[in-house]
């Protein structure tokens, strides 16, 4: 059976991050993607020029409409933007607690623009984290959620993964892309054990949307019932491949997107 995954996130008109990346990633990982928009952005590979928010009631209406008609096997939450939108999302999802939720706490765009209002962080902590099967922050996001310094070592990462689960999610995946190492390690704490997921650091500037891509791939595998540690490993391997092949694309002059369909598109070029 093909599984259905709902992404709740903002739009990226350049196609590299947000809803657009989510739908590509979900599709590439074998599930049917659906989307509820929280915000429109004016952005490209060089940065975010503007944000137009969807009203909290209409965000909730989109999610409610999907659940009223379609079997939802997993939910991915990305850009939430405000406390009111976070609360509206939580209000709807509290009626569907059996559905696994992957929470990617999108706070800052690749170019540095803030994507989450400061007063929304506490609502994200108190309302959305307890609904999540897993939270997937990078190092600055994990530090912000916990109110601690950014992790600089693997021991710091492991401690923060453990601490994040104390806020409510069943598991936490702390992504080590910002770590100053030759490799790019992530650490999963599944509520009982730590699992390190390794990948080489790839020399490319085309990493726009990696967090969106990883969390959506993870949601697709959880929707299919894949155990958490295996789902994380599969999602990590998919993102590593998408980054490795990113330079085959020619999209923009800044941080370009990863290649979501690199495996499917091989051999199609003239």
Overview of the molecule:
- 37% of the residues lie in helices and 19% in strands.
- Strands 3-2-1-4-5-6-7-8-9 form a nine-stranded mixed β-sheet.
- The protein has 270 residues and is an alpha/beta fold.
- β4, α3 and β5 form a beta-alpha-beta unit.
- It has one domain: Ribokinase (UDP-N-acetylmuramoyl-L-alanine:D-glutamate ligase).
Keywords:
nine-stranded mixed sheet; alpha/beta; 270 residues; 9 helices; globular
Count of helical segments?
Answer: 9
- Summarize the amount of helix as a percent range: 25-40%
Estimated structural class: alpha/beta
The best one-word shape is: globular
Instruction: Tell me about the largest β-sheet.
Output: 9 strands, mixed
Share in β-strands? 15-25%
What is the H level of CATH, i.e. the homologous superfamily?
A: Ribokinase
Q: What is the CATH domain class?
A: Alpha Beta
Calculate Rg over CA atoms.
Answer: 17 Å
Any idea of the CATH topology? UDP-N-acetylmuramoyl-L-alanine:D-glutamate ligase
In whole angstroms, the N-to-C terminal distance is 35 Å
Order of helices and strands: EHEEHEHEHEHHEEEHHH
Second CATH tier, the architecture: 3-Layer(aba) Sandwich
Strand order of the largest sheet: 3-2-1-4-5-6-7-8-9
